[in-house]
Amino acid sequence: MSADDASIEANDNFDDLPPEPEVLPLDAWHRARGARMVEFAGYWMPVQYEGIIAEHLWTREHAGLFDVSHMGQLVVSGEGAAEALEALLPGDVSALKPGRQRYSLLLDENGGILDDLMVTNRGDHYYLVVNGATKWDDIAHLREHLPDEITLNLLDEHGLLALQGPDAAAALGALGLRPAFEGMPPVTDLRFMQAAAYYWSEVPLGVSRSGYTGEDGYEISVRGEDIAALADALCAQPHVKPIGLGARDSLRLDAGLPLYGHDLSPETGPVSACLGFAISKRRRAEGGFLGAEAVLAALANGTATTRVGLALEGRQAAREGALVFAEDQEVGRVTSGGFSPSLNHPIAMAYVATAHAAEGTALTIDVRGKRLPARVVHMPFVPHRYFR
Amino acid sequence: MTTYYTKDHEWIAVEGDTGTVGITDYAQGQLGDITFVELPEVGSAVKQGDAPCVVDSVKAASDVYAPVSGEVSDVNEALGDAPELVNTEAESGGWLFRVTLADAGQLGGLMDRAAYDEYVKGL
């Protein structure tokens, strides 16, 4: 028996990972709770506790606590930081109000995607959360392109927790967080993509109402020395359980959310990836970001391929790399795929020739020589339940 | 009936010239939730080391190797509706396929339970 693991361990395309996985602040906490640890993005990370299906469904029904401390937390500061970031991101950073967060992309000069990220206006600086496997390359790219007077810091003393699911607000609300500044809303009143600073007793927390599961919930930046106590306090709340990376992957897949290194890469752009919402109206009109020429041309003329959602019949899943066919013609490739515990059937994301990307199009996917019937469907596969 | 084990975590329970093949409890624990099993065709010939069967978990598809050569005589149809049997009863009701042994001598190269347990302990 041998595992051909597409979704969890495919980070071999990053050549500056340290040879030995690094240990994150919650490592012992996960092991004490029975997590199975795997190497991911250069770190030991919990892939599962009781089982991916149970953890997935628990998060959709209650609340799951995810350790995402491998992700890069960056601070960009200095006069003109918004304009400096706008030279690299297609988002409207200068229109982002304090306490607001937005999804954006780092693009190369060809409009290819170097990473996807969250950017938050924290008042006196911008706070970026980037993918773990790409953070060192991102830092190099940012440092290369940002003017010298703009400061870039990696918050490597901080961990990051994501609390996700319909019971997340009740759980975090029960911890009695105090807003760090007068006039800030209580944590339960934050809206989707809103962020603020809080104190949990004396522990400073950076909290945003966001996540990558399609559920309501929070992402909480906390110092490494305090993260175990916070994780304990959250898991002591009713209906909160620690959840591994395996369920994080199945949750984001059925929420239709692309994963960098799989569904997004330098060979894909914001338009083919269906992330046009991340290019604001003003930026479309003005351009002025790295890769703008290619991205604006793609907006005007369309792209050869498009990211789509595929629903499969039966129970057999198609995995990353599986080829997609229309009749006998190869028209695309699966970039993420698996069995959706929420829907009880397999789903996939694929890039297919745009002529075959319309909802309802019948296609087949080659899985070990067998052609599995699939249909282009609307994403998200499972509706988002953000608190707006 | 004698049961033998492979380093790839298959078991084969042999009675006469028929072997019943499955994956071990250790293997199912490593794979996690099984969502689909692709079974071989009854009547097909398998060679020792071939992968006539694939088990799909939520996160990955894994080959199951034939512990011996022979002809597939039966498959576990119950797995079509209940692939999770491979999780809950890996070494009994979650069996995968039966094979008519071509060469019983191949069993000599496999492990007994004690040797397999020792092997797993070392992983």
Describe this protein's structure.
- The complex is a heterodimer of chains A (388) and B (123).
- Chain A has 388 residues and is an alpha+beta fold.
- Chain A is 19% helix and 33% strand.
- In chain A, strands 11-12-13-14-10-4-15 form a 7-stranded mixed sheet, sandwiched between helices. Chain A has a 6-stranded antiparallel beta barrel with strand order 16-19-18-17-20-21. In chain A, strands 6-7-8-5-9 form a 5-stranded antiparallel sheet.
- In chain A, helix 2 packs across helix 7.
- Chain A is globular.
- By secondary structure, chain B is of the alpha+beta class.
- Chain B has a single domain (2-103), classed as RNA polymerase II/Efflux pump adaptor protein, barrel-sandwich hybrid domain (OB fold (Dihydrolipoamide Acetyltransferase, E2P), Beta Barrel), CATH 2.40.50.100.
- Chain B contains 3 helices and 9 strands.
- Chain B has helices spanning 25-31, 85-88, 113-121, and strands at residues 2-5, 10-15, 18-23, 34-38, 45-46, 53-57, 60-64, 70-75, 97-101.
- Chain B is globular, with a radius of gyration of 13 Å.
- The mean pLDDT of chain B is 97.
- The interface between A and B is medium-sized, with 28 and 25 residues.
- Strand 1 of chain A pairs antiparallel with strand 7 (60-64) of chain B, so a sheet runs across the interface.
